[in-house]
Design brief:
The protein has three helices and two strands; from the N terminus they run E-H-H-E-H. The chain has one domain (about 1-50). The chain has helices at about 5-10, 15-30, 45-50, and strands spanning about 1-5, 40-45. By secondary structure, the protein is mainly α. The chain has a two-stranded antiparallel sheet. Helix 1 crosses helix 2.
Length: about 55
Amino acid sequence: MFYTVDEIATMLQVSKSKAYKIVASLNKELKKMGYITIAGRVPKKYFQEKFYA
């Protein structure tokens, strides 16, 4: 249901620090759309739409 920072760092082959920035950015977009977000996690469907569409 959610990807964690560690999973995103592994998939994108980036540092954990960069993965946190990506997650924060995606969660900021979700908040603007009215969704409740969880720090350090991003919904799998939303992540896949943004990175693998």
